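This section describes the prediction task in plain terms. A model, or a person checking by hand, is given the sequence of a single protein chain and must write out its three-dimensional structure as a string of C-alpha cells. No templates, partner chains or ligands are provided. The sample shown here is typical of the held-out split.
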Amino acid sequence: MTKTCSELFQGMDCTIIGNGNEEVAGLAFRSDEVAPGDMFFCIVGTVVDGHSFAQDAIDRGATSLVAERKVYLADATDVTEVVVSDSRKAMAYASANYYDNPSRAFSLVGITGTNGKTTTTYLVEHIASVAGNRCGVIGTVGNKIAGVMEHAERTTPESPDLQKLFARMRDAGCTVVAMEVSSHALDLRRTWDTDFAVTAFTNLTQDHLDYHHTFDDYFEAKALLFSKDYPARRVISIDGSWGRELLRRCTAAGDEVITTGFDVSAQIHPVEVTYEAARTKAVLEVRGTRIAVEYPLVGRFNVENVMTAFGCALALGIPTQIIAEALATMPAVPGRLERVRPAVDAPVSVYVDYAHTPDALTKAIASIKELSGGRTIVVFGCGGNRDATKRPIMGAAALAADYAVVTSDNPRHEEPDAIIADIVAGMEDAERFTVEPDRRSAIAAAIALARPGDAILVAGKGHEDYQLVGDEVLSFDDRVVAAEELERAFGGACSD
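The expected answer:
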C-alpha cells in the first residue's frame, strides 16, 4: 500500500517542500522503527522533540518528513518535507488517509470517562453481536477483532497504529466497533479525523492529574470527544456535575443526546434494582417505557455501565428487546469484579478488580459488601510514576472496607515503600489496616485474616498478568496468585 505525500495531506493546510508525488511506503513516529520509504513524523513531545531525530530517520531510509518547522539537514537534499502547524493532528489526518478512512466503514462507538470504559465497551460489543453484527473492541484489556483477542500496548493507540487497527477491523468485516477513548489520546489527538457514530461519557473522578494537572483540564480533554470535531450521537451519564455540564454543551450544540443515570430525569434510569451474589435484576425506564433486565454482572457501578451500554445500543438502532435479551447472556469482563475460582472449596470469596482510582475503589468495595454476609477485606496499592495526589485519597477510600492490606501495585521507577507511605498518610485508623509491600504476601495475609463468609477484594491490577518494577516486567496475575494462595490455605477436596 502506498500513497503520495500530496494524497495524504489533500485538504489539509500545509506546505510541501520537494516532491509532492513522493510515494510513501509506511508511517513512523519513532526513528528507530523507520523502514525504507517511510514518512517520518517529527512529534513534539513533553520530554523529547521528534525534530531532533529527523536525521536518524533519514539515515534509516525515510524519504519524507512531516515537521512543524523546516528541518535543515546535511543529508536531506532528496527528502520531501511537509511543514504543518500541528504534527500530531497531521499524523492522525495522514494516517486516516493512508488507510482510506477505515472508521467510515463501520459504526464506531467511542466511550470515555474515568471508570467503566472497559466494561461498557464489552457490553456494547456483546449486545451488537447478539443483534447480528461482527464486532471489534479496542481498549485496556486488549484489542479484539471478530472475536480474536490481541495484546494492547495502550488503551487508545497512537494514530498510525489506531488507523491500521481500524483498517484490519474493516477488512475483517466488522460492522460495529466499541472503543475506549482515553483523555491522553484526546489531548494528544490520536483520534483526530476519526469518524464516530456514537460517543459516550461514563463519569469523571480523580485520575491522571499528573498529566492534566487540574480537574478542569482533565474534563476539557474528555469533552473534546463531544465537540464539533467529533460529530456523533451522544450518550451521557448525568449523575455527576461533569456529565450535566457536558449535557448542557451538547444540547446547546443541537446534538442528539441520550441521558443515563440513577437520576430520575435521565432518559434511561432504574426504577428498581435487586442485587444478587452472581446476578443483578433491574427494571429500567427507557424513554418512558419500563424494561425488565437481568444480567450476570454485580454491583451498583455495573448498573451504571449497563445503562450507558443500553443508551449506546439504542443510538446504534438496536431494538430494546434485543438489548434486554443480550444482557441476560453477557459474559464476565476480565478483571472487572471477577471472582477467583480456586481448585478447592474455600470458605472465603476473593474478587479481583481493576479499581485504581478512589471512586472506583469505593464502588468496588460497596459492591463486595452487597455480595458478602461477612467482613470485607481489601488488598490494594497505587502505581508508581503516576498521579501521587490520589494516593492518600485511595488510602481513605480503602477504609470503607472492614480491613485493608496496603501493598505494592506497579511501582515502576519509584520506591514501593515511598508509594505506600503516601497511601497510609490518608488512613487515620491504624487498627484497620496493615502494610505488606510484597503483593503475593499481601494477598496471602488477607486470606489468613479472613473468617468463613468473608470476602476479599484484590484491587488495582485486574486483568493485568504482570507487575512493573523498574525496567522489569514480572509475571504476576492477581487471579492466579489468589487462587494459588487459597489452595495453599484451604487445600482439600476439589470444588465443582
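For orientation: Residues 300-315 form the longest helix (16 residues).
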